Amino acid sequence: MGFLEISNASKSYGLVEVLHNVDISVGEGEFLVLVGPSGCGKSTLLNMIAGLEDITSGEIRLKGNLMNGVHPSRRNIAMVFQSYALYPNMTVAKNITFGLEMHRVPKPERQAAMQEVAELLQIGELLDRKPAQLSGGQRQRVAMGRALVRKPDVFLFDEPLSNLDAKLRVDMRTEIKKLHQNLGTTIVYVTHDQIEAMTLSTRIAVMHEGFVQQLGTPKEIYDTPANLFVATFMGSPSMNLVPVTIGVDAAAVYAETSDSFGEIVRLAIQDADADLKSMSGKTVTMGIRPEALTDKDGVDHRSALIESCASAVGVTEPAGSDTFVTTTFGGAECVARMRADTDAAPGEVIEFAFNMEKAVFFDPASGIRIG
What we know:
The chain is of the alpha+beta class. Helices cover 24% and strands 34% of the residues.
């Protein structure tokens, strides 16, 4: 049993079920990110863990103890909100220690705990200020300090960086990751930002329309998405989706598609399993990440299966360390990630290289990955 166990958990508002049979086991010290678009149920699930929302059916257990119906104050869970939720009339020091004071922790212990988190979060010089005198990043640190000082079993973060500007989000992301590495705390973190999910987590639960679409490590989610939703939601730019026809002959299994001129292109498939072979003669959706579709010079030379074909360049988008180049395969626009100094130009016909070791295939009817 996990440190935090969510078993067959559902949530309904009247006749509307917004969370469906969620099963997630979170290990002690794990950093689990719940990610998905707005309205997918991730914040509702977080509030159910915190006790701010009742669970309609199923169970939530913490350290083996059933949490259904347990008041939030008795769960030893700390939550960091998107809005920071600081008391505006209190100093930073008072905001951090107020919860301990309400639990009648002696003043010397409160002060020692406050100094410890202030040093950890580097906010010692802010202790006498009030929230209105702080920047967004400073307020977020104070909100984290107020959670840390309680030494909870689980930290819950509800989109804590969404109110910050782009650079500060990156900085705070690093700080949260450092905090987790240093303290080894158990964290459940909600975001709609797939970059945050990929960089922070030890595991990710991708959610959509109240269902967990896939639960796995960042690498599993990125390399082998369970379905078309996960494939397109995770990754920026998102995974290219190309209609292909599966062919099987005595020598090989291949994916047949067309280039930008409508000419037939055959791409060999390595180690095709029985499920994919059973699709012989049928049209499926091939998924390939932009970095696995590039030019001959930028290809991963460690790969045992590189296939190439000529196609016309549509648009080039310089992006600093990379250049994104669009073309068309199977009638679908595809994005290739190439070197910053690539000389590909719109309208030019160049060789595109497919790293077929990285290709995945989906049933276009169900959207589920094949194999």
